[in-house]
Specification:
About 85% of the residues lie in helices and about 0% in strands. The protein is mainly alpha-helical. The chain folds into two domains: about 35 residues; about 35 residues.
Length: about 70
């Protein structure tokens, strides 16, 4: 969980600043995705795909609920 101060810092950032931060964090962490045996890397990417699919499904469900309201 992020502290209130950290959340407030993120809220004050411009979209461009948040994008730069996200890209920098991604660049720093990509090498770790490929560490380990080929099987471990495959499982890691399968897990990421499952989590992304679930997140997308949840967002689409929430969007659909808002569209059905009178």
């Amino acid at each position: 969980m992020l502290s209130k101060e950290t959340l407030e810092t993120y809220r004050r950032m411009t979209p461009g600043e948040r994008l730069v931060l996200a890209l920098r964090m991604t660049e720093q962490n990509i090498p770790a995705l490929f560490e380990g045996s080929p099987e471990m890397v495959t499982r890691r990417f399968e897990m990421l795909a499952r989590e992304n699919d679930e997140r997308n499904r949840n967002m689409l469900t929430a969007i659909a609920r808002t569209k059905t309201r009178p």
